[in-house]
Design brief:
Elements (H helix, E strand, L loop, with lengths): L7 H7 L9 H18 L3 H31 L3 H12 L4 H7 L9 H37 L18 H15 L3 E2 L5 E3 H4 L10 H5 L9 E3 L5 H9 L4 E10 L11 E11 L4 H16 L5 E8 L2 E10 L16 E10 L1 H6 L8 E8 H8 L13 H4 L3
Parallel strand pairs: 1-4
Antiparallel strand pairs: 2-3, 4-5, 5-9, 6-7, 7-8, 8-9
The protein binds 3,4-dihydroxyphenylalanine.
Length: about 400
């Protein structure tokens, strides 16, 4: 390496060369070597020429740096790689930064020109970096958009919205009919006193009706109600007359589960108490109810029956809405379908509930809600109503 021929005295003599050795990173070894050789032969006058030559070499070097940087920039296919190139050339220890650091050793009058050259190189590299960065960023964004593309033409996910249970649909229908006739909807407790569930309904201890309606006894006095009829007694006891209510709710019996029985089911009780209420009112009311529920062609039939809390009592049948009364599989050939029990409120019941039977009379009825739902929707097994099978329930 030619620089080793350079003597410190030469450098000091000329004054030009002060610090030239530390100029190495700026001018590169070759640049120093040239300076040194020339400097030694022509200590002073040749120094300027040396600088001119050196500048040429430096220009070459900067061109080299620029080309190297540009080709590396072009070859960068990711932002990370591009950043590596930036650091390699413009970073603290980068190639061009090294050249810049050497500027302090460049003679003052050459500095503008050298500076200009370095700056041009820097600007060129920076511009190329910026341009490529933009391209890569755009490509990255493009790629991301492509990956995260949302197909707006896809059908939206539907929220599954539940709907009313067939029991509820039937109940609301019954409520609608009676509200239309001026009835109020009331409720009573499911855990009920034996007193209301039986005694006040004319079913004293040891009455055979108690056997038919066996239930869960909380204790001797409290039961799970077997019917909604106790609501009658509770309403009458309040003493607000006249009364025109329906009382829907859950009831319980010690029944085995089968297609027509369940230990827990629902009833809708009806009660009217006023002056001059007769069996004709009961008939007219239930006829109207049956027509609204099952269709205007529906006929009703009152069959004498017995309930302890009504006298007289009846069971009501409606003409089969499937065959219109001719007889079919649905009505088991009879043309009639039983739908409820009813009667005139027993005077003793009125009395026990604080109403004077000489002044007031009333009628009552009790409908099985499940029975209505099964009939209306032609469901042949009551258990389906309690299984919560969505495939079944969504049909109503
Ligand atoms: N509670 C009776 C039962 O569960 C149904 C009933 C019949 C209710 C006649 C009444 C009625 O109000 O008058 O079988």
């Amino acid at each position: 390496m030619r620089v080793k021929h350079l003597r410190a005295c030469d450098l000091q003599e000329s004054g030009w060369y002060r610090g030239t050795l530390s100029f190495v990173p700026f001018g590169t070894k070759l640049f120093c070597g040239v300076m040194a050789d020339k400097g030694r032969s022509h200590p002073l006058s040749d120094c300027r020429r040396t600088w001119k030559e050196s500048l040429l070499i430096m220009k070459e070097k900067l061109k080299e740096i620029r080309e190297e940087a540009l080709s590396q920039i072009l070859a960068s296919d990711t932002l990370d790689k591009l950043n590596e190139v930036r650091v390699a050339f413009l970073g603290k220890k980068g190639k061009l930064t090294a050249v810049l650091k050497g500027m302090k050793d460049v003679p003052a009058e050459e500095r503008p020109m050298v500076g200009q050259m370095v700056n041009d190189t820097r600007t060129a590299i920076e511009e190329a970096l910026e341009e490529t960065k933009k391209k890569l960023e755009a490509a990255a964004r493009e790629e991301q958009l492509r990956k995260e593309v949302i197909d707006v033409t896809l059908p939206a996910k539907k929220n599954l919205v539940g709907h009313r249970h067939p029991n509820t649909i039937a109940l609301e229908e019954v409520e609608r009919i009676f509200i239309g006739m001026g009835y109020e909807v009331v409720e009573g407790p499911e855990v009920e006193y034996d007193l209301y569930n039986f005694e006040k309904l004319n079913i004293p201890a040891n009455h055979p009706a108690k056997d038919e309606q066996d239930t869960f006894y909380i204790n001797k006095e409290i039961v799970l109600r077997t019917q909604t009829s106790p609501v009658q007694a509770r309403i009458m006891e309040q003493g607000k007359l006249p009364i025109r209510v329906i009382a829907p709710g859950r009831v319980f019996r010690s029944d085995e589960v089968d297609a027509t029985h369940s230990p827990s089911f629902h009833q809708i009780e009806g009660l009217v108490v006023d002056k001059n209420i007769t069996f004709a009112d009961l008939k007219g009311t239930l006829e109207q109810f049956a027509k609204e529920l099952f269709g205007p062609e529906t006929k009703t039939k009152f069959r004498p029956h017995h309930f302890p809390f009504t006298e007289p009592s009846a069971e009501v049948d409606v003409t089969c809405f499937k065959c219109g009364g001719k007889g079919c599989r649905f009505c088991k050939g009879s043309g009639w379908i039983e739908i409820l029990g009813c009667g005139m409120v027993h005077p003793h019941v009125l009395e026990m509930c604080g109403i004077d039977p000489e002044e007031y009379t009333g009628f009552a009825f009790g409908v099985g809600l499940e029975r209505i739902a099964l009939l209306k929707y032609e469901i042949d097994d009551m258990r389906l109503l309690y299984e919560n099978d969505i495939r079944f329930l969504r049909q109503f």
